[in-house]
Design goal:
alpha/beta, Aspartate Aminotransferase, domain 2, 4-stranded parallel β-sheet, 10 helices
Length: about 280
Amino acid sequence: MFEKLNSLKTYEAGKPIELVVRDYGIDSKDIIKLASNENPYGPPPKAIEKIKNLAAQMHRYPDDSFFELKDALSEKFSIKPSNIIIGAGSDQILEFAVYAVNPKKVLMAGITFAMYEIYSKQVGAKILKTKSITHNLDEFYKIYKKEKPEVIFLCVPNNPLGECLDAKDVFDFIEKIDEDTLIVVDGAYQEFAAYKDKNMNLLSFKDNCGFGLLASIDNIPSHKNVEDAVIALERMMHRGAIAADGKSGDGSGLLFGMPDKFMRKMATKEGIDLPET
């Protein structure tokens, strides 16, 4: 009955900066930690003050429909509230997706975010992976045509490798897949990819498809978005939750922003052939 649980591996979160310094001899000043999708600036002062003011109400159950938060996000991103799913981090939303479908087969890249495989194995699904460690969509499509998986995961950009598909390629691929297959596009690090190359910006295509927003509520946005955060907090905090203005994700893995030579040194030590990105 519990045989499927024997193959489950314990998820290993990204290493703290202190361990990377010790293990690889890198100066801490040369490391920007991206192993967990965290805001390096810390919570905005206005958000901290709002939380303090409303802490006395935290003993009440929140509104689990998230009506007001969905309404605010709907207005901000010009999408229907019914297309928004709120979760305590993107991990929970990934879990929702897998358990809702209860798939027999799940397709993903050769190396990608570990929780896709962990959640899929929890429901006894067969894991299908591309031979390429990165997102080779031709390989994805060949496996899809042969195996007909019920769920496909695309990590854009890919965690932990960092490679990223162009948004147009993602949506061209989606158009080729039948409507009975759930395609989960995980954009936990989209801000980085879109900043580097506008062609990787998934949001630029939202008007051309049935777009949904998977919003986590565990991250506070950077200072430049503080006003949006405060608006969300004012609508949300009286129900005992912290709103993050629609930024998704707490995706994690062994990924650090640092000079290229250090990244490759670390990858080589771990036996990883790091792709160009």
